[in-house]
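Hi there,

I know you've been waiting on this one. I reran it after we fixed the sequence typo, so this is the corrected version. Both the input and the resulting structure follow.
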Amino acid sequence: MPAVNNAYSDDKDLVGGSERLIEAWRHEFMHVAMMSAFVTMGCNALAENASLSGIAAVEINLPEEPALYRAISQGLLEMPRRYGAALMAAQIAYDHLGIALNVFQEALEHQQPERPVIPVGLANVWRAACREFLTALDVFDAYGLLRVDTQRGTTLKNQCPMRLMQLLRAANSGETLASSGIGHDAQNALPDWVQRRRWDRRAVNIKCMIALRGGSKPAVIRNLSMGGALLDEVPALVRGARVVLTLETGRQLDAQVMWSRGATAGVKFDDQLLLDDPLIENG
């Protein structure tokens, strides 16, 4: 992928559209990173069991060169200078992605239908790309580019930055879609990759009321993260059920039950909490 050239404007925002450009560029980067994580997991699986159907399943998810990145690299769009470090980190990630795409394409050209052969280093080059995406996302985080603006209904809340990092870390560690539990029935248990989340859950002891069909029941939040919570002393809940948590302060959190075991359950918030949310900062 081409290097960024004349991509920066002055520190002041560009008149008429700089904010929209930054948002679109960030969204595009996260989408490409997410697809790269899934492709890497697919390559991890191919390393264990090569098949033409498996190769086809991976190929269909290959990310294309980002259009906004290409426009910026060609000097057709300008980014504010203050995001130069983030843009450079993104460029490095895209460079590694380009290498991984080339290796995959070369592998496709040498496939024989009767005997699929997967290069030993295929999964490794994709894992390297995942590591660079993770590094770039750390830079994005440092510059405040991963905050979710729920007031504007941004689609980023559907591609939660924390979940994206979990995907990338799982892919980089050698996990497959099957071993990670993504897209499969978790059998009332959290998949292993959730335990390697970037932001660990905070141990808390917050009383709340849990509203569900049939009324409200008291419960206790035992630990908390930006994306969800562990509930204790709850009635029997059904996986997938919609619930509303009402805190003693009156604040309400809409959530979905992800798993349930006896009097304990894990829920995922509809809207990811921000880093400076009082619940995250103070517990």
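Quick highlight: Residues 1-16, 148-159, 183-200 have pLDDT under 50 and may be disordered.

Best,
R. S.
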